[in-house]
Design a protein that fits this description.
This protein is α/β, with parallel strands linked by helices and 394 residues long. The protein folds into two domains: 177 residues, FAD/NAD(P)-binding domain (3-Layer(bba) Sandwich), CATH 3.50.50.60; 185 residues, D-Amino Acid Oxidase, Chain A, domain 2 (2-Layer Sandwich). Helices cover 36% and strands 26% of the residues. A seven-stranded mixed sheet has the order 6-5-14-15-16-13-17, sandwiched between helices. Strands 8-2-1-12-18 form a five-stranded parallel sheet. The protein has a three-stranded antiparallel sheet with strand order 3-7-4. Helix 2 packs across helix 10. The two termini are 23 Å apart. The protein binds flavin-adenine dinucleotide. One of its GO terms (molecular function) is monooxygenase activity. InterPro entries: FAD-bd, FAD-dep_Monooxygenase_BioMet, FAD/NAD-bd_sf. Pfam families: FAD_binding_3. This is Salicylate hydroxylase protein.
């Protein structure tokens, strides 16, 4: 068996982007794992997703980028526009060389490519309809208890538990960590189909964001350019987080191009934005359980990097487990390698929120600065983010 991970029993909780990537990355090192997922069927979930070059570089190493390509559209830049007039403020280059383009696609398409790869991998065992309900320290490491929809219970003894169970992580709550909190904004998500989507995708040439006080909108092609994904983000009070509203407010006098997309969109799904506390530990007190992806550090979606961080996490964790036979040491190394980068990305997302939502007259200053900045400088300012490679974390 390769490396140090081969004889350990690794349990991954959650078959989202973080869990599936981790299992595939472990298998690449010859390490087996079992994924337990609470959903009975793993199919179409969510809306669109931008996959930035830093994440695609990882997916390329896992042999997946060419499998994603038939579903994706490559973006060259993100076009920033004034919300009301639609005036172009800047085009921010987002590619990172030939090996790593910037994709936009449907989340379900990414998920299904990951799942297909998992299902043919003999080192990965996937059990659905298994909700983690308890974790107990055992002589071996950790005993994980799962329950199925019909109430049936199952146990798994693990040397290592990887909690990839999302922003409302059960593993975090079982370890009595403070829960994720409402971040004061709601993202409304919808898909546009038909001629309006085809026309918009053909003209936009990538990703478009409209900026305005306390709100912004993002639109980009998915399903190989046949549909448009639309996300409208608005500041909102805690009373709105519980739901109840069915349409986004406040975009009625915005750019006609955006309004057309909104008018043509199917139903909007409200998505209250949550963040995990920055001080949340990732390695639990048992030194056998580690949080990754949104369970560890759900960051705001303003930089479109949450799934990308989950993908990077999975790849780095697999390598540290492979490199170090001592689980405790490997988990410590993982956290040390990832914390600074994730914190920097989270800060960048907060910066985007600040800049995107500036009210006048501050927004006028923002617009002037953006217009004066050459695209090459904008690209250089994002090199730390998009040019990341696994070697950078060593
Ligand atoms: C509006 C919006 C737009 C976004 N856009 C982007 C973008 O463009 N690009 C980007 O990179 N990121 C984006 N993100 C962030 C991205 O969606 C998340 O960061 C990413 O999905 C996190 O993946 P994950 O695997 O950690 O968690 P999840 O996707 O939440 O997966 C968790 C899995 O664990 C399972 N699970 C949960 N509890 C249990 C349990 N007790 N037992 C067993 N299984 C369990 C769940 O069923 C699920 O399958 C966006 C987020 C939002 C809200």
């Amino acid at each position: 068996m390769l490396g140090g991970g081969g004889d350990r029993t690794i349990v991954i909780v959650g078959a989202g982007i973080a869990g599936l990537t981790t299992a595939l990355a472990l298998a690449r090192h010859g390490i087996s794992s079992t994924i337990f997922e609470r959903a009975e069927t793993l199919n179409e979930v969510g809306a669109g997703l931008q996959i930035p070059p830093n994440a695609l570089r990882v997916l390329t190493r896992l042999g997946l980028t060419e499998r994603l390509r038939p579903y994706a559209v490559s973006a060259i830049s993100v076009t920033l526009r004034a919300g009301k007039s639609g005036r172009k403020l800047a085009a921010v280059p987002v590619g990172s060389g030939l090996d790593a383009p910037y994709f936009s696609m449907h989340r379900a398409d990414l998920q299904s490519v990951l799942l297909d790869a998992v299902r043919v991998e003999s080192l990965i065992h996937l059990e659905s309809d298994r909700e983690l309900v308890a974790l107990t320290a055992s002589s071996r490491g950790v005993d994980a208890e799962f329950v199925s929809a019909n109430g049936e219970r199952a146990h798994s003894a693990a040397d290592l538990v990887v909690a990839a169970d999302g922003v409302n992580s059960r593993v975090a709550s079982l370890n009595v960590l403070s829960p994720a909190t409402f971040a004061g904004a709601i993202a409304w998500r919808a898909r546009v189909t038909g001629k309006v989507a085809l026309d918009f995708n053909a003209r936009s040439g990538g990703i478009t964001a409209w900026l305005g006080p306390a709100r912004h909108a993002v639109a980009y092609p998915i399903r190989f350019g046949n549909e448009t994904n639309l996300v409208l983000v608005e500041k909102a009070g805690a009373e709105h987080a519980a739901g109840g509203e069915t349409v986004p407010r406040g975009f009625s006098n915005w750019d006609a191009v955006l309004r057309r997309l909104i008018d043509e969109a199917g139903a909007f799904t409200p998505w209250p934005l949550l963040t995990a506390p920055a001080e949340r530990p990732w390695v639990m007190a048992d030194r056998r359980t580690v949080l990754i992806g949104d369970a560890a550090h759900a960051i705001l979606p303003y930089a479109a990097q949450g799934a990308a961080m989950a993908i990077e996490d999975g790849f780095v964790l697999a390598r540290t487990i492979y490199d170090d036979p001592d689980i405790n040491a490997a988990l410590g190394l993982f956290e040390a390698q990832r914390r600074e980068r994730v914190a920097r990305v989270a800060a960048r997302a907060r910066f985007h929120r600040f800049v995107y939502h500036l009210p006048p007259p501050l927004s006028l200053g923002r617009d002037l600065v953006m217009a004066a900045m050459p695209p090459s400088r904008l690209q250089k300012s994002l090199a730390w983010l998009y040019d990341w490679d696994l070697a950078d974390s060593a």
